[in-house]
Protein: NAD(P)/FAD-dependent oxidoreductase
Organism: Promicromonospora kroppenstedtii
Amino acid sequence: MKHRIVILGAGYAGASAAGRLARRLHGDDVELTLVNAEPDFVERVRLHQLAAGQDLRARPLTDLLAGTGVTLRVARVTAVDVDRRTVALAGADGAPGAELAYDTLVYALGSSADDHGVPGVAEHAHELAGRGGALRLRDRLAALEPGGRVVVVGGGLTGIEAVTEIAEARPDLDVALAVRGDLGAWLSDAGQRHLRKVLDRLGVTVHEHTDVARVTASGVVTAGGATLAADVAVWTTGFAAHPIAAATALERTDHGRIVVDGTMRSVSHPDVYAVGDAAQADGPLGNPLRMSCASGIPMAWQAADSIAARLTGGRLPRMPLAYVHQCISLGRRDAIIQFVTADDQARPAAPGGRLAARYKELVCAGAAWTVANPIQYPVRRRRLTAAPSVGHERVNSGEAPAARGVRS
């Protein structure tokens, strides 16, 4: 009987894991199934572009998986039973009550927008955590007349990329950014200076040290009681792990992320691996890897190579996942490349401008290409051993690459 490997979620992490497993393992020995709620691969790092009115290239998962032997199931995951080793499905390719059994599970269901319990966010704010939210924001922005007011809440990477993209695409709008602390506080001095210069050039009003307590149909209300008028509020204050894991016996953090070891295997259930935003993994200095494409793709490589090693009796990859830079788009014609330490702390260098924008575009395009080409060199599909290893801990000489700043 074939060893059944099920991958849940086809974002950057899940799709990369599926493709890499298909290239590592022999098709006569394994059955690979990728489950995703949509038939297309969504370039999440470009959703601010979609919201601002740009068209993104369609990337059907059937095209990305062609020739790999991976079976695609377009369905929603409604539950995971880690004791029975089954996944419950619903939707187009998963009739109500449908179950999918597995021997090894790769959990990559990602994350959604985190409203942090702020009243009015769900009812009145737009989000950019998924394609549906980006399309709804796109329609709402397109309906705004000149002079319309847009307030983006959240000064992280998503908020900065969204506010600059909107301001550049719609210079006729009154665009503002509300930030809880200092603008770009995690950037180096050079990065902060360039960010402020671009926001000023684009006419974005920045409200620093502004904690939003409530969102209404006509604006956002700060903790101090002031109101920032808005025809459109965009909520970009971080992400929350997909809730499916919360209903399982998997060990999780207080924020719902699955706790994994250095091979991306669950510390509580050895037949489950978790990658991307759904997992809590440590960087080289014990720092938690942040939710990002820069973390997700290398985590997927690590998990796929670890699964293949344990099933074939090979050597486990134990390369630390380290960062190099954060690439931040500031519209289509500007960007910041913030160089960072291995544990994601800003270094002094942060070049910006048109050349940085071109580099950022190459990074985004490269991330999508990597999903379709998760191994960039010839590799032999290995056969499974009669008794797959569960705890084989020999260290690989370095086959699995460390994380390199694919996405900020």
